[in-house]
Structure to design on (535 residues):
């Protein structure tokens, strides 16, 4: 495929975003888990919980630092690689990002230092407050960033001003409480909680398999399993809410995820597996579950979910309407204050479809010159990649249900089997440590790739959003980012593995000595590892 500045700019931003998101979920989840552990320490006064807080807090700090380093680059890319996007929608998109920096990032960056260096300078309660402020700041950062991203998926609370040629905010309240943004926030942070829970579970399971730091490992598994089970169930419930939101805000994305070419009679079935065929416009070997998609997407048994073919026809109609808006817009720009009232009325009547006319500018300079064939071709461009979306979504969902099963099993062992964990279960917990990151990256892929060909859905095409850069500039910076980010990732992995192998720096003597005296009781004939008696 021929490389151009649009595809290279997309590739560069996707690469930096997905690298950054390797660190974000663990930061979100570990901040809460560490705060929970310190809360138990303050309530009980038991040294083992202080040990746990410090150990997992150290891993949180490493991950937090790398997340900040990779996140800053993304902020600058909006101005460097996506300058027209920044000009066109900066009044709306920039507001939540600015608030994120002032309200959330400064909060967590300030208190993270107090968390690490304030153990001997703050009271127990004071340090606990600091821990929770770090956790709140981390999650507030995600809130404002996802409000910005949610607006790109569902641009509410804004309108296009034909006099300034820019989008302008009309209601900050609508932007803040955008249904897509709220659903994305709770879904994303819950996924982060699952990521951290699986990480803590896997590392603790490794300690038990090695017979090291078992007091810390058992309690960490109990906390991670409880928190992780609740979070994994939340991910499924909140993912269902995202599906309902997409059914009336991003219909084409939902149809592409489902591989739904034709509009089904209500209620639509959910395609469990299948092979979408773009050329034949059908999904081969589809295994369908009746009613499920209709219930998820519409919350009813009577409302239809439109298929891709009908949505393409609707896109053609919106492109034709958008051309009328574009023609009126050009007249407004030429006439300025002398623009006839009927021209402005025409623009207002068709302005919501202006973005669809702008899709034509991928093929021509003036959308008014488009032929019916070109309009039909452009309408086809509104279909995102069906096959990758179809399977990325299903792998993500499959992993999600797998996390529920794993967390439920360890919760049951922790609560009802006196923390007796079979060795095969501990090995599985270690092996699945990378799985939440795979699910999280696939989730972002579905969200962002499914929005194409739009930067702001229905408003600004991706092809018009980029800066005027050369292919050489983009290739050079892309290579530089990949090398730099890979080095950071290797450094982070090295540091995390180093501190995991080392374990907690301050052992709880009474716990360790008890386990040393009773080492022979840690193995049973069925290969299970029993619990340590209560302190």
């Amino acid at each position: 495929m021929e490389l151009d500045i649009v595809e290279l700019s997309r590739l560069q931003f996707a690469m930096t975003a997905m690298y950054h998101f390797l660190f974000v979920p663990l930061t979100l989840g570990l901040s809460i888990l560490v705060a929970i552990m310190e809360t138990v320490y303050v309530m009980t006064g038991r040294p083992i919980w202080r040990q746990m807080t410090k150990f997992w807090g150290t891993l949180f700090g490493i991950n937090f630092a790398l997340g900040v380093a990779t996140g800053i680059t993304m902020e600058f890319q909006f101005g460097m690689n996506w300058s027209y996007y920044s000009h066109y929608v900066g009044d709306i998109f920039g507001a939540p990002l600015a608030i994120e920096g002032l309200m959330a990032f400064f909060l967590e960056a300030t208190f993270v230092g107090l968390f690490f260096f304030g153990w001997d300078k703050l009271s127990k309660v004071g340090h606990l407050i600091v821990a929770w402020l770090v956790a709140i700041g981390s999650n507030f950062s995600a809130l404002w960033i996802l409000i910005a991203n949610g607006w790109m998926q569902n641009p509410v609370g804004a309108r296009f001003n034909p006099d300034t040629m820019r989008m302008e905010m009309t209601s900050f309240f609508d932007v803040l409480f955008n249904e897509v943004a709220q659903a994305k926030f709770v879904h994303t942070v819950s996924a982060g909680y699952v990521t951290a829970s699986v990480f803590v579970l896997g590392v603790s399971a490794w300690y038990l398999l090695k017979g090291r730091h078992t007091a810390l490992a058992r309690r960490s598994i109990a906390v991670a399993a409880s928190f992780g089970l609740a979070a994994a169930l939340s991910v499924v419930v909140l993912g269902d809410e995202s599906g309902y939101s997409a059914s009336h805000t991003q219909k084409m994305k939902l149809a592409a995820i489902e591989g739904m070419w034709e509009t089904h009679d209500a209620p639509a079935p959910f395609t469990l597996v299948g092979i979408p065929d773009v050329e034949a416009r059908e999904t081969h070997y589809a295994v369908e579950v009746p009613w499920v998609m209709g219930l998820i997407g519409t919350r009813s048994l009577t409302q239809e979910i439109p298929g891709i073919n009908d949505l393409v026809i609707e896109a053609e109609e919106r492109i034709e309407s958008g051309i009328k808006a574009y023609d009126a817009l050009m007249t407004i720009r030429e006439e300025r204050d002398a623009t006839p009232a009927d021209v402005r009325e025409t623009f207002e009547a068709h302005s919501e479809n202006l973005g669809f006319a702008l899709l034509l500018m991928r093929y021509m300079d003036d959308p008014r010159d488009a032929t019916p064939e070109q309009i039909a071709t452009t309408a086809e461009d509104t279909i995102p990649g069906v096959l990758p979306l179809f399977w990325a979504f299903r792998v993500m969902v499959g992993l999600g249900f797998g996390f529920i099963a794993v967390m439920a099993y360890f919760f049951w062992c922790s609560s009802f089997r006196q923390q007796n964990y079979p060795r095969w279960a501990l090995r599985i917990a270690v092996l699945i440590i990378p799985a939440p990151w795979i699910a999280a990256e696939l989730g972002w892929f579905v969200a962002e790739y499914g929005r194409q060909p739009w930067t702001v859905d229905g408003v600004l095409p991706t092809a018009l959003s980029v800066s005027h850069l050369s292919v050489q500039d983009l290739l050079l910076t892309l290579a530089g980012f990949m090398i730099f980010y890979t080095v950071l990732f290797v450094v982070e992995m090295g540091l995390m593995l180093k501190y995991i192998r080392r374990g907690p720096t301050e052992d709880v003597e009474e716990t360790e000595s008890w386990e040393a005296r009773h080492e022979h009781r840690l193995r049973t004939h069925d290969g299970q590892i029993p619990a340590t008696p209560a302190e």
